[in-house]
What we know:
The chain is mainly beta.
Amino acid sequence: MVIYNLSTNKFTVKIVPSDVDPASAAVSKDGKYVAYQTYGVNNGYEMVVNHIFNVGTGKDVVVAAEGLALSSGAHDLRFSPDGAYLSNVGHYAADTQKAGMAIQIISVKDGSLVRQIDREGVQNIVTGIGWAGDHTMVYSTNSSPNGIFNSEQDSVYSINPGTNQIFNFPNGLGEPIFVLNYHR
Length: 184
């Protein structure tokens, strides 16, 4: 990993401990952590294994969460603005016998799974995800019974992983293409 500091105009090289190329990666806002995914296999199906790497100490933590299946780059790693949480979204691994997607919220402190939001069902997909604050994640889903995308089927939610409070926004707000990260 190469870090470029805009204020000092210097490059720093850090070795991320992995013997394979990462499938996806994200860097915390303060630059202290790198989250990355490696390819793995579970019951013969490809899935990803999430890691949180502490740049300062060199400690690499394997996340204690269900591995989600690989599917055309559907995985999206994002740190909360304060770096306390990491979110991951992807399809269920085939050995779970579930269709649909899941969102995982992970504690950066110890790599534990804080919350998994299951969106079961063949047509139940996550269409956007982002952090609206240190402890507020916003995500949208679409669950069309006939498999045709319909903006009237979109639902938008926010969740506070510390309190597990979920807020459901009114349906029919239009088509949320993506959720932006907001940082003050």
